[in-house]
Amino acid sequence: MSTVLKCQVDKKGRATWDGPEFVKYADENDINPDLSNKENLEIVGNITNGEYNLAIHNVSKNEEGLYKCYQINNQKNTANETFVTLTILVKPKNVTIDGTINGQICGQENVLLQLKCAVISGNPKETITWYNMSSNIETGGPESLIAAITPTRFDHRKQYTCRVNSTALQEPLEETVTLDIKYAPIMVFINTNPTRTNEGKNLTTACTYDSNPAASVVIQKENNVIRTLCDKSTCSHTFSNVSRNDSGLYKCIGRNTYGSGHANITVVVQYPPDIHISQNGKKKVLTCQPKGIPPIYTYRKWQHLSEYGKRIRWLPAGATVEMESQDENIDNYQMNGIYICSAENGILNAHGSVVQSGKYSVLLKDKPKFVYSTEHIQYGRFSFPINISVSVYCYPEFNSWNVSSEDYCCYNETNFGHVTDSNVTVRIFDAAIQMKVFKMSLTTLMIKEEHFTTYTFWIKNEIGYSSFKVKLISSDRPETPNITEIIPGMNSLQIKFVRNYNGGLEQQFLLSYRKLTDKKWRISGPINDTFEQYYVHMITDLDDETYYELRLYASNAIGTSNFTSAWIVRTLDAEIKLNVLLSVLGALLGCLVIAISAFYVFWCHKKDEMAVENYIYQSQGNFLSNQSDHQRDLRERSLLLHGNGNITTGLGNINSVPNALNTDFQHQRSAGIDSIVETQDIHDLNYVEVAFGPSNSNNTSFIHGINDRTIYSDIDTTAFFESSQETQDNSSRDSSEDDFMYVDGIVHYTKRS
């Protein structure tokens, strides 16, 4: 094996290497010839880079020691020294643990045990550590280490590890030993103490033991050994058809060479209680009377059930319970039903249940009681059969009944009055339960005006009688409301509608809507009826550019109206909203220009003469190639524009006009007539077209050129301006070169007589 001792020197100086005991090893590149190991020494490295390294080949223990690299720089008058210690690594080996046999070491519970670990030492000196599993319990060395412990039964079969660490080792050395700890038996009954069982059952008492070495075990009752069956760690005795005589104290005893141990258990043979319930009718108190051994009982909460077995309420646990609530004024029929008392003394019955229960049926007498769910106000429709009824609980059963009104005494004597058995859902102590009742009804009688009155239901049994009044009120479903207008927004729809007759009851409106692509309807509302002239409701959070289907209906206590006809509306998109804004701005600017022009014309008209100078800078040679498409587009946009005006402007190269007006068409509505006017390119003719409102038809105005030259047109002030594709086409066909003369791009117009 070789090693290199490194030294960094100044390349202009003189360097030497000294070995152990300050023996000269090298001077510059020359190795000391007097050294016994001179053949193993060599100066290596690039001296021009300042590397002056000593290489030692076939390193042995003799080369171990302190080395010095020394340099003198005469020019700088300096000296540098570098010291390097060479250590020869020797691995430790042969780790052993004293007293081990087949990887185990014996000890006794609560007796001191010494664990000694030894190793053949290496170089440098090693460290030794004892571990109990992963826990460090002792560290020392070199060569050996003793760990002293006092083991318990819980240390039996635990492993202890001796670990040797050294820088000469790539991995530590380890040796592991398993403890074999001897201890006396420990006995434990696995049954609960005391152990209770039902008479007539089988019972097995069993104890487990732990010992090293194994123990001999017996079970005794009052110093008498009973039949005992044992396996490796458990001994047991089985009682067949256990009786009261088997009650008593039992011992499980175990012995080995290191001592003995025992465990006790008490066996108690008992039986679960039988539950009996008695009633004190006057105080409405029930008493629970369990009977069993032991006579120590734990009571559970009482249960009050309906006759159909549904729970009505929980009552406090105890030997007695009051059926009547202290906080409420309740009727006897509400206390009727099945009462259950549950108690336990810790003994299982034959079905394995520890809780035993007894039932008792309560049926209290009282005069007839109308159940709370019966309505004092009921409804009917003119010319429809009457159908009003009440539900009454009656025990003992009724012996007479009647239904009467202000105008008629005895519906029980007609075919219109009936009493039938029925079941109703009523709330008793906040529980909804089914209950057997009698249903008193008045049916099949066709309702006339005089039948809208108050009816008295009367019923009697041996305890007393009761009556109940029902007022019959005319009512019907509400009529269908009407949607008058739907205004679309980008993400919303505004619905305007008017109410209709509410059927005589309070009504609400509900709006049903969905996308045309959806199947499921969504509901917006309810909207309360406030008797307004009209209603406005907004639906938000909708998708833009989407078709929605809407319908409206009303609802009251009787039912719902029919739906309105379905409306299909499309929400707006963001571009249309911007176009609307730009169109409005353009219209406002156009109106301003037109107003100024109209004022000027009107002023001239007052003077019975007016002059209009028409400077034409360039002919309109650029016609829109797709006028019909543009007109159709504008008509679609006109759905959003509702401004009225009677003057349409076409503006060319005017710097102050917003770019929004430089569209292909401007759309206005004039006296209810849509006008679509072609707008020129910014390089084309600038013009103003004026349509005057109605005026005196006898008053004719003229427009002359400059200095009373050619008359350009006669103006009929009673006419309305119209622009259509047809008139544009005609005007295009009627024009000819006879009317216009082209001179260097300038057009002169001459009116011919």
UniProtKB/TrEMBL annotation:
- What's the protein's topology in the membrane? Single-pass type I membrane protein
Which keywords label this protein?
Answer: Disulfide bond, Glycoprotein, Immunoglobulin domain, Membrane, Transmembrane, Transmembrane helix
Q: Which CDD domains match?
A: FN3
Where in or outside the cell it occurs: the entry states: Membrane
> Entry's Gene3D superfamilies?
Immunoglobulins (2.60.40.10)
- What GO MF terms are annotated? cell adhesion molecule binding
Q: Which GO terms describe its cellular component?
A: cell-cell junction; plasma membrane
Q: Fibronectin type-III domain: which residues?
A: 477-574
Where are its TM segments located?
580-603
Output the SMART domains linked to this UniProt entry.
IG, IGc2
Give the source's domain of life in one word.
Eukaryota
Family matches, as InterPro entries = Cell_adhesion_signaling, FN3_dom, FN3_sf, Ig-like_dom, Ig-like_dom_sf, Ig-like_fold, Ig_sub, Ig_sub2
Principal localization reads membrane
Residues of the Ig-like domain: 1-85, 92-178, 185-268, 281-361
What name appears for this protein in its UniProt entry?
NCAM
Q: Which GO terms describe its biological process?
A: cell-cell adhesion
